[in-house]
Amino acid sequence: MKKSTCFLLLIVSAYTFSSSLIAQWMKTSEPSGAVFSLGVSGKSLLAGTVNGVFRSTDFGNTWDLTLPPTVLPFVDDFAIDSVGEGSRNLFAGGQGGVYLSTDDGINWQAVNSGMENKEVRSLAVIPYSAGGSTLLAGTTEGVFRSSDNGTSWVPSGLTNLVVYALTVFKDEADNTIILAGIDTEFTGLSSCIFRSTDNGQSWIESSIPTLWAGSFAIIPNETNGMNIFTGTYFSVYLSTNNGSDWTHISPGLNRSVYSLATCVNGTSGTNLFAGTIFGGVYLSTNNGTNWTEVNSGLSYENDYIYSLVVSGPYIFAGTLHVNGGVWRRPLSEMVTSVENDSELIPEQFILEQNFPNPFNPSTKISWQSPVSGHQTLIVYDVLGNEVATLVDEEKPAGSYEIEFDASKLSSGTYFYKLQVGSFVETKKMILMK
Fold first, then answer.
1. Average pLDDT along the chain
2. What is the pTM of this model?
């Protein structure tokens, strides 16, 4: 049960050669099987799976296995600790404890002293203070704390409970607040959220009467406070007083919610996504008051959305099914006016193979440009005749996707050419009617 509080500002330009845009989720090539967690560290997209940790640097087009299941299976969560200018510690937790990467998920080392046999379900970082950062691990035996990047661990005051989710934030007075979402089944407890104001040494039970809480998301409100959302066994709850009290806010979303993710719009506020059990993905643009299904392309077996994360121009969903895997969808198909975050500028030019291919009658073409400049994307037939100009304008560095509708063209082989400054690349596609 995963959380994402990923506040991102992106620039997404969506163009269409037709008046009809087919908006839907598409499955990435890897990883296959159950995906328990998703995370972003720098330009790395991480997927925690039953088969270890996979890493992608091209928004899920290709993946590398960097932490095999023989080392860490059932990877349930990621956490990031920023330790300096451009530097960060990335942690992964699963069955077998906690592992650390200092290069955005390429290499890993165990930080498991005292945690080797623990099943880690959630991770969070209390940011650097006078004594350094504190790493929190929610396990099937309660919350553990480490103040030395996992070299040693001690139990916190919350013990003998299954901790599905953790989140850390500052209140209006700059006090650190920690929330833990737990499973109350067989415990006799009346609430599934606990709250700590002393770095996890002691905990107070909050008021939220439902079976479990599996995810958190935080959105600043207009009064300089925080709207805190939690996904639970019974839909979504909201707290406006730093997690002390909770209100059920989504009567139209009568699903168990396993995962939450946010994306900030430049002009129209913050979007809140909810991943559900057998309901797919929902979107709210008004703090959870109303929800809209955004499920086109997701099959029934992949409606068990265990994790969500925003990366670049996409939202990604990890699904809990033997054939589940990672699915992605452009944010531009669901939200508008999204602005750029320089952290997400691509490192190189990439022109993707169109998908699907062969196609009938439409297909999508994606590309990345690490520089601003005049961009053209033109389609040619086998004789070199221009049949469509999809892009011809100045564009900033970023990642883009466009749909090409060839319903007025005959079957055959076509070529699409991207040019940005001196960069030119051409790929072949097949229209099969």
1. 84
2. 0.74
